[in-house]
Every structure is written in C-alpha cells, then in structure tokens.
Amino acid sequence: MEDFNGKVAFITGGGSGVALGQAKVFGKAGCRVVIADIRDDHLAHGLKELRAQGTECHGIRLDITDREAYARAADETERVFGPAQLLFNTAGVSLFGPLEKSSYDDYDWQMNVNFGGVVNGVQTFVPRMIAHGQGGHIVNTASLGAFLSSNFAGIYCASKFAVLGLSEALRQALEKYNIGVSVLCPANVKTNIAESIKTRPEKYSHSGYEYDEETIESLARIYSQGMEPVELAQHVLDAVKRNQLYIIPYPESRAPLQAHFEAVIAALPPEDSDPEGVAKRNAAMLRYRDEVAAQQRKRERS
Ligand SMILES: NC(=O)c1ccc[n+]([C@@H]2O[C@H](COP(=O)([O-])OP(=O)(O)OC[C@H]3O[C@@H](n4cnc5c(N)ncnc54)[C@H](O)[C@@H]3O)[C@@H](O)[C@H]2O)c1
C-alpha cells in the first residue's frame, strides 16, 4: 500500500505506546484512525494527541478478548468512517516471573490478550476486508520474544511465537485478496507496558509471581530507554509501503537472532544423510498437496 490518504485504520491498544505511535504516524500520512483500548484514560489521552496533530480520529472502549464487543467495534468503525483497509493488532500485555511458578491465570491472561486478541482482530476484520474488495494491510505486533524465549518471559514469548506463526500463515492466505501482512517484532520501546498488570481483569488475578510497585518501577526503567513509538511506527509505515513481512528495526537483535538460527540449523543432519527417507517424505507431501487441490476443485464444481 502506497497511498494512505483517506484510508481507515483500526488500531488496538491505540491509547498508548506502540499503538499510539502507529496512530500518529499513519494519521499524519492521511489515514482516518480508530483507536480501541481497554483503558478510558489511555483513550482520552490518545484522542487528545491525535486531534492536536489534526488527525481525524475516533475512540472505542474495547477489550480485545471480547468477541461480541469486537464485532460491535468493527460495525461502529464502518458507521463512523467506512470499511477499514488497515488493521493494527497491537494491544498486548506482559507479566514476567519464573516459568515454573506460573499459574493458569498467568497463562490465560497473556495468551488471551496477546494471541487471542490478534485472533479476534483477524476473525472480525478479515472477512470484512475480503468483502469490501479494496485490499489492505494487517500489522500484527509480536516481539523480539517471538524468536528468542526466556525463563521470566516464557508465557509472553509463547504468546508472541503464536502471533508470529499466525502472521506468516496469514500473509500466504491473504495475498490473493491484495491484503498484505506484516509482523512487528520490537525489542524495547518507550511505552507504559511495565504497568500493563493494571489492565488485568480480576478473573486472572491468581498469579504465581511476586509483583509489586518495585517490580513495575524496575521494568519501567528498562522501557524508559526504549525506542520512541513514533520512530518505531515510521519503520512500520515504510514496511507497509514495501509490503515487508518482518519489521525488526533493532541492530542489536542481529547477533542473538543469528546465534538462534545457527543453533536451529546446527540441529539438522547433513542434507545427503537420508536420501530414501527424504524422497519418500517429499513425495508424500507433494501427493497430499495435489489431493487437496483436486478436492478443492471438486468442491468448487459441485
Ligand atoms: N514496550 C516494549 O518494549 C515492547 C517490546 C516488544 C513488544 N511490545 C508489544 O507492543 C504492543 C504494545 O505494547 P506497548 O509497549 O505499547 O504497551 P502499552 O501498555 O503502552 O500499550 C498497550 C495498550 O494496550 C491496551 N490494552 C491492554 N489490554 C487490552 C485489552 N485486553 N484490550 C484492549 N486494549 C488493551 C492498554 O490499555 C494500553 O493502552 C504489545 O503487544 C507488546 O507486547 C512492546
């Protein structure tokens, strides 16, 4: 997508941080912007900033884990601005602690928001984007943690691995509808994510971790040194223009990613170590693809 003028962008988490940066940059590029957020104070702050820069914007209070409310938010977007061509699945939360101490609530909250929220965005907007036939672009926010996992961030990383996997598959699925998909994998951004526990619903409050103001302050000190959200969003805008899949604008990520993928490749046997097995498995896969294609043609004929 090259021309953003008059396009409608729906941005989750848009009242703060990464998503507000996206709203500002895509708003400046000419988009009409809907920000959806679970926090009223964040929504009010985001709308104020967007209006101050002259962006046409609208705010919707939304918990992205609520599927019915998500559908209503999409209806509201269409009533206010018309169909959306851009979807930013950006809202996310983090809660860090020793993985072996995690409770089911720790899993459920982070998976439901970080992965479930993206699923709900996709399920709500993709059929509408296909139906309006104007093409578009989806940006899913994962994290560098979608490639590199660690003990304290284990659940968060698992949720982001899921976002990465879905985004790669979705890009293949939506190419024929002229809908691009990108996955944003930031390392450190200057946002309010240290305090995301404040948005955790009571039903997920049985945590296995110790979390207090001191924990939040330590985390906040890390994020205070992160990339400015507007700078990150400028990379996103450039990537959407180029229809680029991965957006990872952090030079310091090169060495750990290189080490990670070298370790993965090192786990493989030499290419010529099992020619018969390779031939058998490849043939089975090709046969399966042919069968699926034939079944699809049959269904389309009947
Ligand atoms: N800050 C970083 O260093 C960093 C690094 C990698 C990835 N990310 C990712 O960036 C995304 C945005 O986070 P951020 O850093 O801007 O944090 P943030 O807390 O500043 O912004 C997140 C926004 O999402 C909203 N939100 C939370 N739960 C929600 C829900 N259930 N429904 C709707 N809105 C909800 C919050 O109210 C908040 O306004 C997240 O997916 C996060 O995982 C952030």
What's the topology here?
Blueprint: E1 8-12, H1 17-28, E2 32-37, H2 40-52, E3 57-61, H3 67-80, E4 86-89, H4 104-132, E5 136-141, H5 154-174, E6 179-184, H6 213-223, H7 229-242, E7 246-247, H8 254-266, H9 275-301
Parallel strand pairs: 1-2, 1-4, 2-3, 4-5, 5-6, 6-7
Helix pairs in contact: 1-7, 3-4, 4-5
Residues 12-13, 15-19, 37-39, 42, 62-65, 90-94, 113, 117, 141, 143, 186, 188-189, 191-193, 196, 199, 223, 226 line the site of nicotinamide-adenine-dinucleotide.
Considering the protein shown, what is the CATH homologous superfamily? NAD(P)-binding Rossmann-like Domain
Total of domains: 1
Q: Could you say what the CATH topology is called?
A: Rossmann fold
Q: What's the CATH class, please?
A: Alpha Beta
Estimate the strand proportion: 5-15%
- CATH architecture label: 3-Layer(aba) Sandwich
Instruction: Please give the number of β-strands.
Output: 7
Q: What class, by secondary structure content?
A: alpha/beta
Q: What's the main sheet like?
A: 7 strands, parallel
Strand line-up of the largest beta sheet:
3-2-1-4-5-6-7
In helices, the fraction of residues equals: 40-55%
Indicate the low-confidence ranges by residue numbers.
Answer: none
Count of helical stretches? 9
What does this structure look like?
The structure is a single chain. By secondary structure, the protein is of the alpha/beta class. It has one domain: NAD(P)-binding Rossmann-like Domain (Rossmann fold). It contains 9 helices and 7 strands; from the N terminus they run βαβαβαβαβαβααβαα. A 7-stranded parallel β-sheet has the order 3-2-1-4-5-6-7, with helices on both faces. α4 packs parallel to α5. The radius of gyration is 21 Å and the shape is globular.
